[in-house]
Design a protein that fits this description.
The protein is of the alpha+beta class. The chain has 5 helices and 21 strands. Strands 1, 2, 3, 4, 10, 11, 14, 16, 17, 19, 20 and 21 form a 12-stranded mixed β-sheet that branches. The protein has a 5-stranded mixed β-sheet with strand order 5-6-7-8-9. The protein is globular.
Length: 326
């Protein structure tokens, strides 16, 4: 069946929790970003009683269940209990997430290794559909999220990786809405099909709505699909808006099977790579800071994110979910 790429933001806040925009203002801001969909996830509050279209943009129902032990996004269904919630123990989280799962909601753990508000319970105890690997503008905590997610993939767990801006407001004139942006390969522009595609791992996450996009295929298979392994299979990579100095890395499980740093900016970059073994294949694009920007960014992380990183490393600019290889 033909699918379409749709872009949106999965993690947004309004004045109904701790954002600065009303729901209407936030919808207009997302329209201006060119989004196809958006998910409003106010803390412990249902700002959207039922998903709806506002012009061409689909506004999806969501809520961020928020307690001291961790934050979890609930998408597509109303949380079936009313706040205030008991969210202190493993059992508290299991009880409310089980109720949400019974309604058919998609469940994503948010910024699990955030320095300021991590998920303090054991992640592996919960059958999350997704993990928010990339939260707000790129920073070192997201690399920890990425590392945990890859570890789960290597264990054979099909857990989808998404990005969300966690938008509350802009800072110092910098627009944070849609940073990052999640692209979803869905059957249609409907709540059901978008959330089903996210749950199946049919996602690519990139720096912003107009940034680099990665298309990774193997024949007719695309991200989220499973193929059968043979010796002659190749992964086709097409990258739109590749920037000079950015590094393309294609992984076959933990092994790097392609490594290229762009010598110039390119509107369209294409390559093919042999699959070497069963498991999965994924692609990410990274970038590095100049020595001066590295010092500035390290200092900013320490001040605003309370990060303990002594020096920031390379950051991800865009990444795909896997194609699975049996």
């Amino acid at each position: 069946m033909d699918r379409i790429w749709l872009k949106g933001d999965t993690h947004l806040h309004t004045v109904n929790s701790d954002g600065v925009l009303t729901k209407g203002q936030l919808v207009e801001a997302c329209k201006n970003k060119g989004f196809d969909f958006m998910i409003i996830t106010d803390h412990n509050f249902n700002s959207v009683e039922k998903s709806y279209f506002d012009g061409d943009i689909l506004v999806i129902q969501g809520q961020e269940i928020t307690g001291e032990p961790g934050h979890v996004n609930i998408w597509g269904k109303k949380v079936p209990v009313e706040p205030p919630y008991a969210l202190e123990t493993k059992e508290d989280y299991s009880n409310i997430l089980d109720l949400c799962r019974q309604t058919g909601a998609v469940i994503s753990v948010n910024h699990p290794f955030c320095t300021m508000c991590p998920f303090r319970l054991k992640l592996e105890d919960y059958p999350f559909d997704c993990v928010e690997v990339w939260n707000t503008i790129q920073h070192s905590d997201n690399m920890k999220n990425r590392d945990w997610w890859v570890k789960q993939l290597l264990l054979g767990k099909h857990i989808s990786a998404v990005g969300g801006s966690d938008y509350h407001k802009d800072y110092f004139g910098l627009s944070l809405l849609g940073r990052p942006t999640t692209y979803v390969l869905a059957k249609s522009k409907s709540e059901k099909d978008i959330l089903e595609a996210i749950k199946e791992g049919r996602c690519v996450v990139t720096n912003d709505p107009n940034s680099t996009m990665i298309y990774m295929t193997c024949g007719d298979a695309q991200v989220g699909d499973t193929i059968s392994y043979d010796d002659n299979q190749k992964i086709e990579i097409r990258i739109e808006n590749l920037k000079k100095g950015h590094r393309i890395l294609v992984y076959n499980n933990e092994k790097i099977i392609y490594d290229y740093r762009a010598v110039k900016s390119t509107d369209t970059f294409m390559t093919t790579v042999d699959i070497e073994e069963p498991g999965f294949v994924r692609t990410e694009i990274t970038h590095k800071f100049s020595p001066l920007l590295k010092k500035i960014y390290t200092a900013a992380e320490s001040q605003f994110l309370k990060s303990s990183v002594s020096e920031v490393g390379d950051f991800i600019w865009a990444f795909t979910n896997p194609i699975w290889v049996e």
